[in-house]
Amino acid sequence: MKKAAVIVLALVCLALVVAYVDGRDKARPDAPVDVEVLRRDFQVEINVVGELDAAQSHMLSSEIQGTDGKIIYLIEDGTRVKKGDTLVRLDPLPYQTQVEGLQAEVAELKAAVEAARQMMAFEENQVEQEIANAEYNLNVATLELRQFEEGDGPLKISMLQEERQKAKLELQRYEAFYNDLLQLKKEGFDNKSEISAAEEKVAVLREQHKEANSRFESYRKHVYPALLESARAKKQNALLMLEQTRQGGVHKVAKAQATLGQIAGKVAAKEAGLDQARVELEKTEIKAPLDGIVIHYETFRDGEKRKPREGDSVFMGQPILYLPDISKMIVKTRVREVDLFKLSLGQKGVVRVDAYPDTTFNGDLTFIGALATSEAPGSGQEKYFQVIFTVAGGDPRLRPGMTCRVSIIAQAVKQAVVVPTPAVFSGEGGEFCYVRTGWGAYAKRGITTGAHNEDVVQVVAGLEPGERVSLVPPQAD
């Protein structure tokens, strides 16, 4: 009996001790809370907040030269449009007036061109006729010279020479007859009437022979050379007139061509101006180059920062609106400098848009900036790098400017020894955990950590799965 009573008493004491210790631990507000060291998969994610934008967008502005553009129609902000839809109309009146004025000037100059062309044709025809007449005169002069040199001149000389020869022969015949009569007179046969008549005849023939000889010599020595020189001069003059006519014709035609070319040049210049005016007129209507959503461009206008509206004046190159291509969207955001080493191009991620919290979109990291920025440069604040995340596929619900949250999967760790992030402490000796060694007892143990996210830390060395570590530093009694 005594032995049984001792055993019961011992059990009661043990129960009291356990109850005391357990009650003591629960009563302490700083009692350690420990968890089990596990082996499992986890992902290292970088969570950032960004803004949706189109991967490509077309900025549309006035292309009209100068500052005469005035908006008379502007499509509403946020309107979905198709390629070719009219987005902006600028006041076309100044350009229509310019086009009409230039059209009238071009028509007038074209009429002047036609008149100049007809004048040139007339001058060319006139010159051709004048040259033909001059060539005819030259041919006539050449033929007359040849005819005189080879025909009329020598023939005339021959005729005069023959006339002189006949006069000479006739004179010689009558002189012989007259001499015969004188001889008969000496012989006693005196025929005074015949001698007198023969003497008169001889005198007349001598005069005729003298005149014939004079005519021959005069023609041969004076008339023929003069007529020959005159014929040659006439030919030379005709040749000179032909050359002058040709040169004068060239000058006349060239002058007419120059006049035509000058007017044609004016026509070309006016037509170029007309073409430019027509282009400017076409530019008064700005159309969508692709499907998209219209977003009015906000900038300083009339001393205030605002979006454009009808009635505003615009100058060449001043943005009016832009048309994002919403078929491919990106997220523009930034990451902390301390997280930069975790990123590489091509990493996958998930996008959640605040407007559609129940929908997720996949994508890839496609750009990492090269320069760091801070909220206030030079202030020593934390620095950031710009990154761009491209959303896979397209969704008509996505709009530029929407706020979204991106979870970039920087690393996927397989079957690693992990502990919760609060279980890892750091001090002078490095990182460590408080490992449970017994009931309510913990020992400080150094560890080597690897990858980590917001929830867990990989323990490369120092812990084994199944051990328990404290989430808060234990306090000594």
Automatic annotation (TrEMBL):
Pfam families reported for this sequence: Beta-barrel_YknX, RND-MFP_C
Primary site of residence: other
Question: Residues in domain Multidrug resistance protein MdtA-like C-terminal permuted SH3?
Answer: 415-469
Q: Name all YknX-like beta-barrel domain ranges.
A: 329-408
The record's GO CC annotations read: cell envelope; membrane
What InterPro entries does the record point to?
Beta-barrel_YknX, MdtA-like_C, RND_pump_MFP, UPF0194_transport
Q: Name one GO molecular function term.
A: transmembrane transporter activity
Q: Where in or outside the cell? A: Cell envelope
Question: PANTHER family recorded for this chain?
Answer: EFFLUX SYSTEM COMPONENT YKNX-RELATED
- Full protein name: HlyD family secretion protein
Source species, please? Desulfoprunum benzoelyticum
